[in-house]
Amino acid sequence: MIDEEALRSIEKLHQMKQGGIISESDFETTKQGILQGKPRNRLHQPAGISQSTDHPELPSLNDPAGWALLPLKRYAVFAGRSGRREFWMFQIITTGLSLIFWSLVGNGWTGLFISSMALVGLLGLLVPQVALQVRRFHDQGKSGWFALLNLLPFFGPLIVMIFMLIEGTHGENEYGPDAYNR
Fold first, then answer.
1. Which of 5, 64, 149, 171 is the most buried (most CB within 10 A)?
2. CB 19 within 8 A of CB 61
3. Can you give the pLDDT of all 182 residues of the chain as single tens digits?
């Protein structure tokens, strides 16, 4: 007899398969693990990745705000993989907020206060930005140390942005499963 929690897990897996987030073989393997009573968080645990890197649930494919906020939920997680959707949605939101804050900057004390708050906010987004870039490099099968290209004067950030356009590897790689690649 299947318990309700296992049934809900299989339904979620089915939705992920239908959304293109996981492959048919991953669906079948994970479903069999659930039916056999294996703990869910140990299924498809790639070698070298510890239990502490469990990822929050993925937002639906039609939830741009959920994808944009996912890097904040994974604030300083440098392990694992992140797909292009997660990266670019976060870029759109942070760039939009930056433009809004900088457009409010004026003269005098008010302008100084607003620009100071914008600077503090942008510094707060630096850690999730770097972690997200590291996970994008992982998604492509590259070392996260490639994020240090940002430190090259003038062309470094441009080179990193070009890398962020490249599609990730399909299937599992040394950094984890391909669940975040869509």
1. 149
2. yes
3. 567 777 888 888 888 777 767 778 888 888 888 887 765 443 343 333 333 344 457 787 788 888 888 898 888 889 889 989 999 999 998 888 888 877 777 777 877 887 788 888 888 899 999 999 999 999 999 999 999 999 999 899 999 999 999 998 888 888 888 755 44
Whether the Cβ atoms of residue 176 and residue 49 lie closer than 8 Å to each other:
yes
Two tokens, residue 140:
């492509």
Burial of 43 (0-12, 13-18, 19+ CB in 10 A): middle
